[in-house]
Amino acid sequence: MLVALPALGFLYQRWGTRRDARRFPPRGGLYPVAGELLHVHATGSGSPTVVLEAGISASSLSWTLVQPAIASFARVVSYDRAGLGWSAPGAAPCTPARLAATLHALLQGSGNPGPYILVGHSFGALIVRAFAAAFPAETTGLVLVDPFRPEEWWPVTDGQRGMMRHGARLARRGRRLATLGVVRGALALLAGGRHLVPRLLNRLSAGGGAGIAERLTGEIRKLPREDWPVIAAHWSQPKAFQAMAQHLESLPASVAEMAAAAPLDGVPIQLLMAGRGRDLHPAPAAYAARLGPQVVLTVAHGSGHWIQLDQPELVVDAVRALMSRPPTPL
Questions:
Q1: In Å, how far are 225, 229, 303, 315 from 144, measured between CA atoms?
Q2: Cα dihedral angle (122, 25, 192, 84), rounded to 10 degrees?
Q3: What is the dotted CATH code of the domain comprising 26-323?
Q4: Rounded to two decimals, what is the model's pTM?
Q5: Among the listed residues 116, 115, 96, 101, the one whose alpha carbon sits nearest the alpha carbon of residue 38
Q6: What is the pLDDT of residues 53-111, one digit of tens each?
Q7: Strand 36-43 vs strand 76-80: parallel, antiparallel, or unpaired?
Q8: Where are the domains of the chain?
């Protein structure tokens, strides 16, 4: 039994992965860049190009409620970082400067030239800020969607470092369970309306992280129902948990890199901050002032952290506002 059950789980996982590849092909194209094979989904037309950057373990599907609306008046690109969504796994550090450089090369290589309006959610906001700092001539503006705030984690305390290490350990545990088909089986039971076993597995495997997983499940339910099996297919793969672990292991370096980042003096910024939830910013106006002199702050009173799912129209309106600005004189 000790040999047969893991072997059966491994075969079940391989069969399911092949079936998912047939059922849920990439919505865009796959492009090689910096040793990685990344998925890009581009729609609409016009200039500047709008680029959507997801949160720390999210994929291009997190923009499902936003991308079609922006595509009605602009060229808009979403993509998956290595290991997430339809992208192949990668091994490089997941720090904002490195990810911004990869994104720039990906946009050029996939036929999506600048200038760019970049939209970043949570951790993705660090990446688009690093992009604007590295490529200011190609950046028309930024939309920061309830951004991760590195200055609140710097200097990193022992407790915070322990939280990051614990999160990475849980992610690597999830990778092992996904390899043996356990994650796939639990998600299949959940999709069939059988909640008890998946919840027990979640609590046994995630421990203190079970509550986070349940909150994320609640956010996913805000997406169109037809996307749910696609997301389940992505998170049934070990590469997704590997990518999460890599992001969490790189987080101390990411915080150090961005905590002292200079204000973006020449870049207009639309800042959207959550208006409800457990992690509200105590002083959003002061935070906005630190980002740069051209920041427009909007508090999304009807939204938690995932504003693009609670009030997607606010993200679309922020992009429209940047596109309607007169060009900055040279």
A1: 27, 28, 14, 9
A2: -30
A3: 3.40.50.1820
A4: 0.91
A5: 101
A6: 999 989 999 999 999 999 999 999 999 999 999 999 998 899 999 999 999 999 999 99
A7: antiparallel
A8: 26-323
